[in-house]
Amino acid sequence: MKKVSIVALFFCFMSGAIAADTSQYNRQLEIDNNVVTNHKTKVNGVKFSYTAKSGTQPVWNEMGEPIAALHYTYYTRDNVKDRAARPLLISFNGGPGSASVWMHVAYTGPQVLNIDDEGYPLQPYGVKTNPYSVLDVADIVFVNPANTGYSRVLPNKDGKMPSTEELKKTFFGVNADVKYLAEWLNTFVTRHERWRSPKFLIGESYGTTRVSGLSLELQNRQWMYLNGVVLVSPTDIGIERDGPVKAANRLPYFAAAAWYHNALASDLQGRDLEELLPEVEAFTINEYLPALAMGGFIDPTHKQDIAKKVAKYSGLALDEVLKANLDVPTSYFWKELLRERGKTVGRLDSRYLGIDKQDIGNRPDYNSELTSWLHSFTPAINYYMREHLNYETDVKYNMFGNVHPWDRTNNKTGENLRKAMAANPYLNVMVQAGYFDGATNYFDAKYTMWNLDPSSKMKDRLSFKGYRSGHMMYLRHEDLKKSNNDLRDFIKASIPSKGKAAKY
After folding, report:
1. Of 99, 129, 135, 198, which alpha carbon lies 20 to 30 A from 364's?
2. Predicted confidence band at 26 (pLDDT cuts at 50, 70, 90)?
């Protein structure tokens, strides 16, 4: 009996110890808090110190009640004499439902992933100094929309979560997203005394829809005017690319991906990519698109001639192109291009290879690029937030959060960006895209830019930059340098000279 009593007492003691030890942990998000840390870095050979502020800021409803808490990380360069003159870069990723992690720890932020020069995972996981970060010329805030990263929608005052329809109306839709984020940014800019600063928005993928909509929402509803908007790997911003246009615009990407994998005929393969692509683009616009527009009434001989060129530029067999009636789905291309080699190519970045259970089929088993990225990004951001920025929470960091169903109706974000540019002579737009991105292909990005302003009156305020990588072009070391330098130049060029008025 004595032995049993001692054992019982031991377990009672341990139970109490465990209970006491775990009481410090809490998965409830603090809705308005921040942690400040100080750091040093070296960008383009210049050393400087900077401050990181990571925290949450509420989203309020019309009654002034907090309905969500958005997590952000705000970087400011130290020892800046005139903060009002210093640009502020506001950064969003996409999804919808994606955290701001991608550009935060791989593109513009002061720390980047520990990966190889082509973007593949390395162990030990973690981060290293970003020698090309634009923090030298602009302060940066990375924002996580509701339910992404550490951000969360909050229960109401009765402790109940909003219904699916309420979530859609308030947060999860093209226009709802833009509306609440504009309000949130007004508060952020006010709290941090940045109203006088030149302001820039950068968005990647669905984030381009978000920042395009925000450009006009901020201008018309918050009276906040921007100097620049950057669209990284743009997706749908309400500019139609359906039917023959959608099918034709894939071909330059097909050619780029096939070129990368040495799958083209020798006369094409021997040429430099950026010397080859203009030829493919010209064929796409002048011959391929009109042929697709003819549908089933195209002349059979002409169809054969077009199919031969499509096959040549895409690396696919002539018979496959004809079976598809000239319209080859991207999912089929990812499976077919290297089928004989027993490999598939990635969707968001076709440099990445995958292996399927069977070589037959019309689409790959998985996205080889995305699994590679999650391999390195997920441990890095969790480690970085806690051990570098001292932001400690048991709230799960959502790489992809639940924001569905997403309301995509009434998407006029591209037209809203055009209106914002027309009303604001200071506002410039830059598009960045990777040649090997098969999800938001670079020729779609060019097409979007061409059709953003059909009048061509603002043509000189629109620019395009292409890169020899994919959706996240900055994962390739050479393009990390190039894309940041392009962004740095864009920011500098979009700040008017002293005394230059905003007028036509």
Report:
1. 99
2. low
